[in-house]
Amino acid sequence: MTPLPVCGMPWGCQKRPGTSGLRKKVYVFQSKRNYLHNFIQSVFSSIDLRDRQGSTVVVGGDGRYFNTTAIQVIVQMAAANGVGRLVIGQNGIMSTPAVSCVIRKYKAIGGILLTASHNPGGPDGDFGIKFNIANGGPAPETVTEQIFQISRTLEEYAICPELTVDLVTLGKQTFDLENKFKPFTVEIVDSVESYANMLRNIFDFAALKELLSGENHIRIRLDAMHGVVGPYVKKILCEELGSPANSAINCIPLEDFGGQHPDPNLTHAADLVETMKGGQYDFGAAFDGDGDRNMILGKHGFFVNPSDSVAVIAANMFCIPYFQHMGVRGFARSMPTSGALDNVAKATKIQLYETPTGWKFFGSLMDAGHLSLCGEESFGTGADHIREKDGLWAVLAWLSILAARKQSIEEVMTEHWKTYGRNYYTRYDYDNVDIDAAVELMLNLEVIISDKEFIGQKFTEGEKTYQVERADNFEYSDPVDGSISRNQGLRIIFKDGSRIIFRLSGTGSSGATIRLYIDSYEKDVNKIFQDPQVKLAELVTIAVQLSQLQERTGRSSPTVIT
Questions:
Q1: Active-site residue flag, 408
Q2: What contacts 530, CB < 8 A, 6 or more positions away?
Q3: Residues ≥6 apart with Cβ < 8 Å to 245
Q4: How many Å is the maximal CA-CA distance in the chain?
Q5: Distance from C-alpha of 256 to C-alpha of 252, rounded to nearest angstrom
Q6: What is the pTM of this model?
Q7: Which of 145, 243, 256, 328 has a CB 3.0–4.6 Å from the CB of 212, allowing a cystine?
Q8: Counting runs of H as helices and runs of E as strands, what totals does the chain give?
Q9: Tens digit of each residue's pLDDT, the chain (562 residues)
Q10: 387: three-class secondary structure by DSSP
């Protein structure tokens, strides 16, 4: 056992995992002695020793800077903590959806994912660690809180410092350790194959191949943004489904993502948006660093809002063989996501669940057999085939819909709005806000909306008046285990169904991000083709003035995400 250095500040003080694990700047992991070791030991210590002994753990990362260094440490500590086998993606690379798939395939006790998702990489960028449990999904709050509490009092960690593995060569490596009855095994696996085989059993690959390479094939443009999903796109979309090799760009994973921000939205995937505007391609998509998020674009840059994306898939689920065989158990969306999915659920009489942000809440519903399809406004879409959001799955789902309906993305979207109405939606991000100022803003706003006199209050902007029907700090009671998640975002809901939502994000590595969401439903078919920013301008003004966002944060120009 190697002792930790004595430190006046408890080691766990800066390590409480957020909605997507622990994320910090790379220099934090490099400069704070044993910072990485402490967190990894806390993860292993959170698993009962009887479950840990001889168990299988999956390890993979998005290829960002510090990835391979961290994996070697995890290998050394897994061996010393009684883990029997590690399954690691070749070169230490494996997408988040693929890790979830492999955890389930190998019946592992869990997996360690090295990713900061859509955050920048490189020596000056971010690094992250996330623990997924045996169902393949993110650890629930009970587990992450246990990890945090262990990290606060940890005094020593177990490690085999001389043990190193070859991350390049496929196959098994065995190590005989002192005081171990069985050798410790590390298995390096093809990062793509298990995941690709799963997709073959979900979608009609013959129909997709005809769509992408048949006589009347469509032209697609896929941007992997130098993240982990590049090899998956090349193998599945190009080599197997026949899309030309030049239809996929930025497919080589890079430690710094080519100096770009691997976030598939209109701001950070602007090059793809501009290319699509030229009209040369019928379908476009971008993926984030670890491959779980996606952005869908149609010809001439037609943007599919993520909230609309999951709703369209829900309305066309039986274009996908998996759902033809499995049926549909339920839908779910995160609370800040627009009500577009609600409209489909109501029309189809399928149960809808509204959860806090975080895929772990969907996993609980899936494990209980309540949920088939879910999505988040933050470009995350997925189903119960795994327990993570899945960018490439979403792309194949959309392509399946196009193949079955023989329509363009814009035609599919237009018909959807005419059938179900349209939820106009936008999200503004106020990044790197002083944490104290952000907390004060949220507390002050909660006081305002909690006042009994706030209910019924009217706000007039332009020619329209909005009257408050209810307002609260969103609280979720899990229907499976009864656990309560409080303080999940401030909601103002008006009598016409429009919503203003404020939320502090937990996925950044520094400062605070205040997110403002605006959602407004329109059922008049003559009013469903307006610019969302124009349509929602009045509600945005109300939100900014009520919260004093600009005065309290000093931010007058937020990032428009959707």
A1: no
A2: 424
A3: 234, 238
A4: 77
A5: 11
A6: 0.95
A7: 243
A8: 20, 27
A9: 554 432 323 344 445 666 568 999 999 999 999 999 999 999 999 999 999 999 999 999 999 999 999 999 999 999 999 999 999 999 999 999 999 999 999 999 999 999 999 999 999 999 999 999 999 999 998 999 999 999 999 999 999 999 999 999 999 999 999 877 789 999 999 999 999 999 999 999 999 999 999 999 999 999 999 999 999 999 999 999 999 999 999 999 999 999 999 999 999 999 999 999 999 999 999 999 999 999 999 999 999 999 999 999 999 999 999 999 999 999 999 999 999 999 999 999 999 999 999 999 999 999 999 999 999 999 999 999 999 999 999 999 999 999 999 999 999 999 999 999 999 999 999 988 999 999 999 999 999 999 999 999 999 998 899 999 999 999 999 999 999 999 999 999 999 999 999 999 855 556 899 999 999 999 999 999 999 999 999 999 999 999 999 999 888 889 888 9
A10: coil
Joined together, the tokens standing for residue 558 give 């937020």
Read off the amino acid at residue 163.
Answer: L
With contact defined as beta carbons under 8 Å apart, do 287 and 293 qualify?
A: yes
**What's the token pair of residue 276?**
């699509």
Total residues found in the chain within this entry = 562
Q: At a CB cut-off of 8 Å and minimum separation 6, what does 551 contact?
A: none
Catalytic option among 45, 117, 334, 547: 117
Tokens of 78: 């897994």
Residue with the two structure tokens 């059938």: 419
Q: Tell me the backbone φ, ψ of residue 49, rounded to 5 degrees.
A: -55, -40
Among 517, 521, 298, which Cα is nearest to 412's? 298
Contact 220, 208 (CB under 8 A): no
With beta carbons less than 8 A apart as the criterion, state whether 466 and 496 touch.
yes
> Other CB atoms closer than 10 Å to residue 93's CB: what's the count?
26
CA distance 271 to 314: 29
* Residue type at 157 in one-letter notation: Y
If you write DSSP's letter for every residue of 32-94 in order, what string do you get?
STTHHHHHHHHHHHTS-HHHHTT-EEEEEE---TTHHHHHHHHHHHHHHTT--EEEEEEEEE-
